[in-house]
Amino acid sequence: MLDLFDDVPKPDIDWYPNCLTPAVAADSLRQLTDEVAWRQDWINTPRGRIPLPRLTAWQGDPDVVYVYSGIVNMPARWTPTVLALRRIVERVAVTRFNSVLLNRYRHGKDGMGWHADDEASLGQQPIIGSLSLGAARTFELRHNATGVMHRLRLTSGSLLVMRGRTQAEWKHRVPKAAGLAAERLNLTFRWIEPTQRTAAGRA
Ligand SMILES: O=C(O)CCC(=O)C(=O)O
């Protein structure tokens, strides 16, 4: 049958609504709230220096430094719950990750603006494994060339995998959610090319 919507652009994504059971998702949320060293980052804007509307943390293998929006993220060591979740996400996404950006949306006033995870250090066609815990939030993808939008409801325990040309051709965001009091954690697992290290005493 002719599908009238066949030519609507679609991002290269897979969504697993039940990647974690509700019990594992609830335990992970509790553990990560305490286990992770959450920090408040600030960015420079035309209106001056402002705090990011969320808390963040960066964990990864020792050489994996990630720079975005002028923020240099030196990797903290993998903590036990994050490592266990990484193994699950690697199995489902059938890939390896060496780092994770953790985002803590304390309430509906926290969010994330339009952007793509397209830094050169992520490679040409990055695979991003994005795991959600806690309050469900809307996730929007907007096609660069046409403005076509797709919306997903990222529920607790769900995994969104973005692949292929998704970062090159689309932007994504988590809009603010008026009146929402509950917290959400999001873990975006990534593969970053490790920085070149020069061993002491060698040219
Ligand atoms: O919180 C989310 O679902 C998205 C996070 C995100 O876009 C990012 O870390 O780049």
Number of helices: 3
Tell me, briefly, the overall form.
Answer: globular
The helix content, as a percent range, equals: 10-25%
Question: What is the end-to-end distance?
Answer: 65 Å
Strand order of the largest sheet: 1-12-9-14-7-4
**Spans of at least 5 consecutive residues with low confidence:** 196-203
- Overall radius of gyration: 17 Å
Provide the residue-averaged pLDDT: 92
Overall number of domains = 1
Could you characterize the architecture of this molecule?
The structure is a single chain. This protein has three helices and 14 strands. By secondary structure, it is an alpha+beta fold. The protein has a single domain (13-190), classed as Sandwich (Jelly Rolls), CATH 2.60.120. The strands form four sheets. Strands 1-12-9-14-7-4 form a six-stranded antiparallel sheet. Strands 8-13-10-11 form a four-stranded antiparallel sheet. A hairpin with a 2-residue loop joins strand 2 (42-45) and strand 3. The chain is globular, with a radius of gyration of 17 Å. The structure holds 2-oxoglutaric acid. The site of 2-oxoglutaric acid has 11 residues, from strand 7, strand 13 and strand 14. 2-oxoglutaric acid (AKG) binds at residues 101, 103, 112, 117, 130, 139, 154, 172, 174, 186, 188. One of its GO terms (molecular function) is dioxygenase activity. Keywords: Dioxygenase, Oxidoreductase. This is DNA-N1-methyladenine dioxygenase.
